[in-house]
Structures are given as structure tokens and as C-alpha cells.
Amino acid sequence: MEENQYINRELSWLQFNARVLQEAADKTVPLIERLRFLGIFSNNLDEFFKVRYATIKRIDLAGKGGKNVLGGIKANQLLEEITEIVIEQQSQSLKILDSIQNKLKDHNIFIINEKQVAKSQQAFLKNFFLQKVSPALVTIILNDLEELPRLKDSAAYLAVKMIMKDPVSKRPNSNVLSNQAREKKYVLIEIPRSIERFVVLPKEGDRQYIILLDDLIRYHLHSIFNIFEYESVTAHMIKITRDAELDIDSDLSKSFIEKISASVKDRIEGEPVRFVYDMNIDQDTLQYLMSKMGIDATDSIIPGGRYHNRRDYMNFPSLGGEELQYKPYEPLPIPGLILQGSLFKEIAKKDFLLHTPYQSFSYTVKFLREAALDPAVKSIKITIYRLAKISHIASSLINAVKNGKKVTVQIELRARFDEVANINYAEQMQQEGVNLIFGVKGLKVHSKACVIERLENEKIKRYGFISTGNLNESTARVYSDLTLFTSNQSILKEVNKVFDFFEVNYKVSRYKHLLVSPHYTRSSLVKLIQAEIDNAKEGKPAGIRLKLNSLSDYSLIDKLYEASRAGVKMKLIVRGICCLVPGVQAMSENIKVISVVDKYLEHPRIYIFENGGNPKVYISSADWMTRNMDYRVEISCPIYDKSIQKELIETFEICWSDNVKARVISIKQDNAYRRNNKPPLRSQFALYDYYLQKLETEKEKV
């Protein structure tokens, strides 16, 4: 492995999260949205430690070094480098938070702590504490416990130290003990997750006050501990993050749902991988806790600010005027596809592309609801990866069963951190008579596809969709994704073959149209890249345009390097991890890479191959990562409709032209904003205008 040939995956991910932090720091972003980006940054970091840091730690503890799998760096060195970067990023995030809170004061929004409570606010806070908070508190006195209770993963705790009064000092002529010698009681208070973190107080004139739940508890420490005679009491926040890897039971007598349920419960027993504490905590309290918890040098120990679990800022209340938040955009209809009419009737004539959140996710729900009610529909097959908490998708499928349709659902119970929600829906659908499939041993099912069989003129005709995103109403409002609605019988016949594979795992079908992981995606992509190399050598039009969440598969990166050396020009838009090093002479000088981080999470995967002037265009559920190529079931779907091909190429170019929110990915890893002399173009806003214009053009035709 040559030096600088690849960027380490974990370090690249940290740079992606730094781009999220840039949004929190960006003064052009509305203030409350900046707070929410801080929440996203913190939430991302929590998941990173649960999964990636935990994996590297296991490699290190196994004594394997991990140099080959970690991009040329040893596991222990990588753990140290990650901790160093995270400490610096956390420090930046605290400064950003302070700056935002100060600026909110200009808009009469004040975030106060327990020392800033006014007399006029005391009665409200006391009542709120007694009615809502006090009954929900879990308070643990540690001194008399031989072992510390198992702390919940990523829950926030107040570590309380009480210095007790000296009973001897009450007698005449007694020597009063110093604070150091007096009895100390250590207590943990778990901050309830069932109560909103931000408590909005009644307005006072034009002023809006907010207190964090943590500080509301601090304000009432005396109420909590009034049975003790103490001299002083202090409370500082701590948080522990645990290894989130699922250990699946091999017991053959248990159902798959039972195994996953047990594994999720066992996750609370995972080994700690990160310990975050308030840097102002007393050293004796810190040492006491670390000793009790068994925290050692192989864990990431992060001194932080007064407040942890800043992911809660993702749900910061909507306060103040419109200038404090992004203007909401109404999702647009798809030109030529009317929600009030029959979608099947229109899809029978031509393919349609849905691009959320610019266009309405209601089309997906309507498609399934129509299938549930249509007497001609005989069966529905669908893959599910992540569902919304209240899912119209699930209710539509249950509705279909009640109307006598045969419904088959491949549900992925191992969708990281959504296991519990998926298990609940799986059990609910199973009880209603849905035929559930739980995937393929050793593979996650990450594809997003649906096939509906409808009886027309005594023959079965298929309708369906292939998507880049989850069938989730909540994320469809903030994730950009693509869904192709089609009645192309050749494509849908092959989607049906994927469902056959779920049922009979040893049977691997051949595909003429779809690229399907784990069997054919890698080899198909290599052939497509090779075709561009051959065309470039022959002087034919050659080029590759990719839009991905992540690019980390070394063998595919090597193939792109080979294409670059052959003169193939490449434009890559990679939101997150990018292990490819662009712009290096004699290796990747023909490859340019940008990342766009903005209001919406960029989630679609688009592959465009120039193909000698007759472009091949795909949408896909698969990133270019080893897991997507070899360890997941993924579907990449060719786009045959010329108007949709044109739309995807045009929207790609709009994203590529972004000079407001695009960052240049380079070997420097400095997240430099792309700036040029062209008029400012913010691609996500420009895409909404693009679809608005398409709609107006369609109206003019009518």
C-alpha cells in the first residue's frame, strides 16, 4: 500500500463531521438551524464511537495491529489520532454553541442556567419539577454499592458530590474537620429521556426564556437531597458510550426476531469505548467514577463542557421569527402524475422519477394505498430497511392483507439503531398476516424495491419502484432521495428474482438489467469503468460522474485511478467518507471530488457513464463501500427513459456547480469551500427552482 494512495476511512469520516460543524459555524445559516447542526454533529459522533471506534478498539485488543484493513495505520495509533481530533472538534463546538446562544439574545431568546433563575420564574419551575421531573428521576447513591450500576449507553448523568456536615462541629470546643477530611457522598442522577431537554418558560414581555432540563434538576438539588445534612453539593455531567455491535445468538430454537431482540437488549452490556465528562468536575469525583466504571487508557476519555448529549439540539424548539429557521418549502407534485388519480394508469404509460424532498413522498404512500384497495392487485412484495415511528407504509401493507392481497415484506431487523422499531413493526405485520422474510444469512438487505402484480386482461402485469432511500415519511422531509416508478416488465421481472433469492438463498439468478449485490455489482462496475478506459484510449467520448454517500472500497478506487491514468475525466460528489485521493499527478489527476453539506442530507446514489456519447445512467441503493459490494443485498437500476436520464444528468450538474455549500475534497483534508467567479449557486435551493420550473413548463403545455 503506497503512502497517500488512500485516505483513512475513519479520518475521512471525521472530516465529514467537521463539514457538519462548519454548518453550525456558518453565520449565513439561521441561528436555530445552526443549533440543530450542532445536534447532528454530536449525534453523528455518538454513532461513530459506538460502531467505528469500537471496531478499531476490538482490532487493537486482539493484537492484530490492523494496518492492512485500516489504510496503512496501526489500530492504536488511529485510536490516539481519533481522540485528538475529537477533543479539538468538541472544543470548537463549545465555542460555536456559546456564540450562537449569545446571538440568540439579540432576538430576545435567553438560555439560562440554575444560577440565573428570576423570582418570577421560581413558581413555574417548582411546579414543573414536582409534576414532571421528580417522578421520572432515577437517583443512585454510590457509596454503599460494591459495584456501579450499568450505566446506559449515551444517557446523560449528573455526577453529584455532597460534602456532609461534620457532626462533631456541633459540640463546644470541637475541632472542625476540613472539607477534605469530611465524609463525601457520591450520587448519580440519570437525566430522563422522556422529558424534552429544553424547558420553555412562560414569556416575560418580548423575552423568551429556556432552561435545560439538566439545570432545572441542578436548581432543585436541595429538594432531591433534603433528607441529608450536607455542607455543599455540586453536580457535573458525564456520559458513557458503549460498543454497539450486535452479537447474534446461534441458538436454532429461537426465531430471528427473538435473536435480534436479545442482541439489542445485550447492547446495554457492551464495553465502554468513550467517556465524556465536564472538565470542571472535581478530580476526586472523576477518579472515583472512573475507578468504579473500569475506564482505562484504551477508552477515549474526552473532557467536555457543562452539557453533553448535545444531539438533543437537533430538536431545539422552534422559537422566534422566520429569520431564525429555514423557510419551509412545500414539496412539489411530479409533472404529469396526479395524486388524486390512478398512479397505475399513468405509470403504465411511462416511467416517473420522484426526487424527495423537492417532490412529495406522498406518491410512494399513494402507490401502496392504491395497491391495497385495487381489486385487480393480487400481490405486493417490498423491502423495508428503516420505517418511520408512525408509518403509513406499514399501515398500507396491513390494509392490503385485510383486502385479500398476498403481501411479502423483506424487513431488515439489523438496520443499525432502528432494530427496536423494525422488530415492533415486524411483529405487528406478522400478526396481521403479512408474509415476513428476514433476509439472507451473513447479508444485510439494504435494497429499496417493490413489485406489485396486477391482473390485466387475464394476464399478470407488474408495477413497482426502485429507490435510493428508506421508505420513511420522517426522513423523506430532510433526506434527498430518488425513486423510479416503472411498469418496465424486464426490470420488474429481475426485481422479482431478487425476492426469489430471499426465499431460496442458494439460487443465484442472472440479470441483464439490474446490478445486484453481492453477486454482480462489483464486477459490473469494473466492466463499466473498463469500457470508459477503452473508449478514452480509442478517442471516443469517455467520462464518469458519480454521486455517492461514501467511497471507500480500495479495489474500485484503484480502478478509478486506472481510468484517470487512461485520461477518463471524472466528477465525483461524495457527501461523507472518501478514501480516494483526487488530483494526484500520474494517479488521479483527472478526478475531481466535492462534498455538499446543506439544509438536506444528500442521500441519492447516481452513476453516470459516458459510454461513447450514449450515457448509461443508474440510480442505486449502494455506496461504493466493501460492505455494499460484498455483504449486502443492493439494487442498482438502469434508467432507460431518455427524459429521466436527462433530468438526472441535469440535476447532477446543478449539484456539481454548487459554489456556496460545496467543499473541495483533497489530500489536504481541510474542507475548503469551493469558490469561483461564477454567480453564487446553492444547489439544494437551485434544485427546488429546477423542479418548480419543470412544473410550470408542464402547465404551459396543458
From TrEMBL:
Source organism (scientific name): Salinimicrobium tongyeongense
Domain named Polyphosphate kinase N-terminal: residues: 6-111
Superkingdom of origin: Bacteria
Residue positions binding ATP: 44, 479, 575, 603
NCBIfam families associated with the record: poly_P_kin, PRK05443.1-1
Modified how: An intermediate of this reaction is the autophosphorylated ppk in which a phosphate is covalently linked to a histidine residue through a N-P bond.
Keyword Signal attached: no
Location of the Polyphosphate kinase C-terminal domain: 343-506, 514-684
Cofactor: Mg(2+)
Binding annotation for Mg(2+): 386, 416
CDD domains according to UniProt: PLDc_EcPPK1_C1_like, PLDc_EcPPK1_C2_like
UniProt keyword list: ATP-binding, Kinase, Magnesium, Metal-binding, Nucleotide-binding, Phosphoprotein, Transferase
Protein name as annotated: Polyphosphate kinase
InterPro entries from the UniProt entry: PP_kinase, PP_kinase_C_1, PP_kinase_middle, PP_kinase_middle_dom_sf, PPK_C_dom2, PPK_N_dom, PPK_N_dom_sf
Catalytic reaction equation(s): [phosphate](n) + ATP = [phosphate](n+1) + ADP
Family, per entry: Belongs to the polyphosphate kinase 1 (PPK1) family.
Lineage, uppermost ranks: Bacteria, Pseudomonadati, Bacteroidota, Flavobacteriia, Flavobacteriales
EC numbers on record: 2.7.4.1
